[in-house]
Amino acid sequence: MIRDIEAAREALADALWWFKGFAAARPASIDEGAGEHLDLERKIGEVRNFLTSVNQASIRRMGEETAVVLTFAEFERLVDAVRIPRLAETQIAIQTIEQVLAEYREEEHAARRGDEIPF
């Protein structure tokens, strides 16, 4: 079972190598579907890029308002503001929330424009 992004990336890499081997083993006389492996490789590459962006929190919006991606450091800032209700901690949490919300809204706006958002 895949429990983290690295495991997912490794599974994708294994699948890519398997499909490359499968494509290389196909007889040259079979032209039908010859480009299928390239399309699959592109799609798997897109998934790997998506997983990387989630891991680095360079994407904030997942699906149709199903999740907001935060790094653990960002989450810790929010927790600190609750645990240690001092002005400095609260200001840091507010800055974090404003940054994440701005990035989320930009991605939401891009989705309305029709730009692709994975999944």
Structure description:
This protein is mainly alpha-helical and 119 residues long. Helices cover 67% and strands 3% of the residues. The protein has 2 domains: 1-56; 59-118. It is built from 4 helices and 2 strands. Strands 1-2 form a two-stranded antiparallel sheet. α1 runs antiparallel to α2 and α3 crosses α4.
Q: How many domains in all?
A: 2
**Low-pLDDT residue spans:** none
Number of helices: 4
On the 0 to 100 scale, the average pLDDT is 79
Cα-to-Cα separation, first versus last residue: 20 Å
Main structural class: mainly alpha
Major sheet characteristics = 2 strands, antiparallel
Count of individual beta strands? 2
- Order of strands, widest sheet: 1-2
Question: What is the molecular shape?
Answer: elongated
Strand content: under 5%
Helix content: 55-70%
Taking Cα atoms only, what radius of gyration do you get, to the nearest Å? 20 Å
Order of helices and strands: HHEEHH
Comma- or semicolon-separated keywords:
67% helix; 4 helices; two-stranded antiparallel sheet
Reconstruct the topology from this structure:
Layout: H1 5-25, H2 36-55, E1 61-62, E2 67-68, H3 72-83, H4 87-113
Antiparallel strand pairs: 1-2
Give a short overview.
It contains 4 helices and 2 strands; from the N terminus they run H-H-E-E-H-H. The chain has helices at residues 5-25, 36-55, 72-83, 87-113; strands at residues 61-62, 67-68.
